[in-house]
Design a protein that fits this description.
The complex is a heterodimer. Chain A has helices at about 10-30, 45-50, 65-75, 95-110, 130-160, 160-165, 170-200, 210-230, 240-255, 270-275, 275-290, 295-320, and strands spanning about 40-45, 60, 80, 90. By secondary structure, chain A is mainly alpha-helical. A four-stranded mixed β-sheet of chain A has the order 2-1-3-4, sandwiched between helices. In chain A, a hairpin with a 5-residue loop joins β3 and β4 (about 90). Chain B is α/β, with parallel strands linked by helices. Chain B has helices at about 50-60, 75-85, 105-110, 120-125, 140-155, 170-185, 200-205, 225-230, 250-255, 275-290, 305-310, and strands at about 5-15, 25-35, 40-45, 65-70, 90, 160-165, 190-195, 210-215, 215-220, 235-240, 260-265, 265-270, 295-300. Chain B starts with 5 loop residues before the first strand and ends in a 6-residue tail after the last helix. Classes of the chains: A mainly alpha, B alpha/beta. The interface of A and B includes residues 167, 168, 169 and 170 of A.
Chain lengths: ~325, ~325
């Protein structure tokens, strides 16, 4: 076995391990389980203020009409109430906080005496950080696969090192296999770090089986490794490969549900988003981690990933430029 | 000369780089014949763009020739590639290794590709890099990097060593160190094919030299033979004040012992057999013309003079 193709790059270590960790930490803290923000409401009379102020969901102040309209326009308050009769709600229907404020205020004022029991539920598994961690694992596998294979190969080719290696009896399959092995090695490290970080720091649940998660990330790694190999198989210089990789990575970064759900996109593009490998990987990881899905539930996604891996690898090996 | 004693034989070698966007097809090698004997150090000499690198890469099996026959150590690339790879040592014109690898690791990595070979540290001794074996690649000087590249080529203890411009861009001391390495290798009966555009390098290292220009061999022989083909072994360069008679060049040719006269932009280069026979006559000619000598120098003829006389161009651009 001659697979000792270890290329040390200390700089890359941060981007592989440090960056996703920092991102999880920052986003996780930013979207931590803060109590929902109270909405700001201005009223014209002291009586209304008294009626609203017991509620923790609203912040009330008394303002005269011109000042209140100004505050509403600049977004400092979400709603202005004039006592009437009829009672008038001034709000901007295009602003979600404004509509929320109106509904809250109406609710409080109309049901002032019928106290209903409220129970607030924020459970692990439904928080933003729970959504985020599987997405980051997925996107991390994508970036490290594409950059770690694609970029590195083109760099080696650019430095004429591939040519130099071909001039030795080294088996070409060993060269390619060394990249796959490196990916797998890094995958284990990445996955361990991100999963345990999410689990111990944020309490992100791992409801499904760990081997299934490992299997999915393995397929994801092979899939993106194959794509990296394919884009690198002909490219000769660094700007080309940079452009190609970004071209492929960026749409998936935004469109595959790393930071927000793909359902935010209009229905027309949904079918396209669904066939993106990162969407498949993220959805499958979320299903297993958060909902405890079994192997049958993620089988189609796993099949998509393996399919892409097989196709990209076989094309890449055929067209690979060994110079 | 029997075929068995040939390390490299190539006949009518042609290589074309196909036309690409913005650049037309390039005929880099144009019917090149070459025979390198086992145990000799053979030099391909020529200016940049002459086709030296293309030729050596075809011989190394890295490029497929467009036409012609190539035999290396009596074998062909098409049928015997795995065997040949084990027998050759290759150093490319430029190879950059990753910055963060240690010298020792690089050599060990290359050693691992071959079935047989030398101990990596022993090879580092050969190129005087033993004390750098724990250094990072990025910390090496240009000369050390080049010696490391040669070490990687030597680690398999090859029968035949290809070196593509091994000393280009190196300082004189590094060049001399590399020359010693190559001379040692040759002294053990092994074959070296190197390309260079340094005349002194070819004269110092090579048993035989092929001068390559426009993808063809235009002269072949030992450095001594090539220099002798000039007819003279000494070169006088003389630069005179202007307003010389039109037949001045002819009068130079008529001087005793002159083999050739070449007009250069601001001087004449006169190839002669013996300085003492020609110089007095030259000076009295100058005196009768009442011209002023701006510069007068002589040197022993070199391959540079051979190249210029063959092509009318200077070797270094």
């Amino acid at each position: 076995m001659r697979l000792r193709t270890f290329w040390r790059e200390t700089g890359a270590v941060f981007w592989t391990f440090g960056f996703p960790l920092a991102l999880t930490l920052v986003l996780g803290v930013a979207f931590r389980d803060r109590p929902p923000d109270a909405v700001s409401i201005a009223v014209q009379s002291e009586a209304l203020r008294a009626a609203l102020s017991p509620s923790k969901d609203v912040r009330v102040e008394v303002l005269a009409e011109p000042a209140a309209r100004e505050a509403l326009r600049t977004g400092r308050i979400s709603l202005f109430i004039q006592p009437g009769p009829p009672r008038t709600y001034l709000f901007d229907p295009t602003r979600p906080d404004s509509r929320l404020a109106r509904a809250l205020a109406e609710n409080i004022l109309d049901h002032a005496h019928a106290e209903a029991a409220e129970m607030r539920v924020t459970e692990p598994g439904a928080r933003y950080v729970d959504f985020l961690v599987p997405g980051l694992i997925g996107s991390n596998i994508m970036s490290s696969g594409m950059w770690g294979v694609g970029y590195v190969i083109v760099e080696l080719r650019n430095k004429r090192l591939i040519k130099r290696l071909v001039a030795t009896p080294m088996k070409k399959t060993h060269f390619l296999a060394s990249f796959v092995l490196m990916r797998l090695f890094f995958l284990v490290v990445e996955l361990t770090i991100l999963l345990s970080f999410g689990y111990f720091v944020f309490g992100v649940p791992i409801r499904g089986s760990l081997p299934l998660i490992a299997g999915l990330t393995l397929l994801g790694s092979l899939c993106f490794g194959g794509m990296g190999l394919l884009v690198a198989s002909r490219a000769q210089n660094m700007p080309t490969i940079n452009g190609l990789i970004n071209l492929i990575i960026m749409p998936m970064f935004l469109g595959s549900g790393v930071f927000f759900s793909t359902s935010k996109f209009p229905p027309v593009v949904q079918p396209f988003l669904r066939v993106l490998p990162l969407t498949a990987l993220n959805d499958a990881l979320r299903a297993v981690m958060l909902q405890g899905a079994g192997i049958s539930a993620v089988l189609p996604k796993a099949a998509l990933l393996s399919g892409i891996a097989v196709v990209t690898f076989s094309i890449a090996v055929k067209v690979f430029r060994w110079r | 000369m029997s075929d068995a004693a040939l390390a490299i034989r190539c006949r009518g070698l042609v290589h074309r780089y196909p036309a690409r966007r913005g650049s037309p097809e390039v005929q880099a090698v144009n019917g090149l014949d070459l025979e390198v004997k086992v145990g000799e150090c053979f030099g391909l000499l020529g200016p940049n763009g002459a086709g030296k690198t293309t030729t050596i890469e075809v011989l190394e099996g890295l490029l497929e020739p467009t036409g012609g026959e190539v035999e290396v150590l009596g074998r062909r690339w098409a049928s015997d590639e795995p065997v040949l790879r084990e027998l050759l040592g290759v150093s490319l014109q430029q190879t950059h290794l990753p910055d963060r690898v240690k010298v020792k690791e690089v050599v060990a990595l290359f050693r691992s590709f071959f079935k047989r070979g030398k101990d990596p540290l022993e090879v580092l001794d050969l190129v005087s890099l033993r004390d750098k074996s724990e250094s990072w690649y990025e910390g090496l000087s240009g000369g050390q990097m080049q010696r490391l590249a040669v070490a990687c080529a030597l680690v398999s203890d090859p029968e035949l060593l290809f070196l593509d411009e091994p000393t280009t861009g190196l300082d004189p001391q590094s060049r001399r160190q590399l020359w010693d390495v190559i001379a040692d290798f040759k002294a053990r009966g092994r074959t070296v094919l190197l390309t260079t555009h340094y005349m002194d390098e070819a004269e110092k290292l090579c048993d035989r030299v092929a001068v390559v220009d426009h993808g063809k061999v235009i002269a072949l022989g030992t450095p001594g033979q090539l220099i002798a083909s000039l007819g003279g072994t000494e070169v006088i360069e003389i630069s005179l004040s202007s307003s010389l008679p039109a037949d001045f060049e002819a009068s130079l040719r008529a001087l005793p012992g002159v083999h050739a006269v070449r007009k250069e932009p601001d001087a004449f280069a006169i190839t002669v057999e013996q300085l003492h026979a020609t110089l007095p006559a030259l000076l009295s000619l100058v005196a009768t013309l009442q011209a002023t000598v701006l510069r007068l120098s002589t040197h022993h003829a070199t391959l540079e003079d051979v190249f210029v006389s063959l092509t009318g161009r200077a070797l270094r651009e």
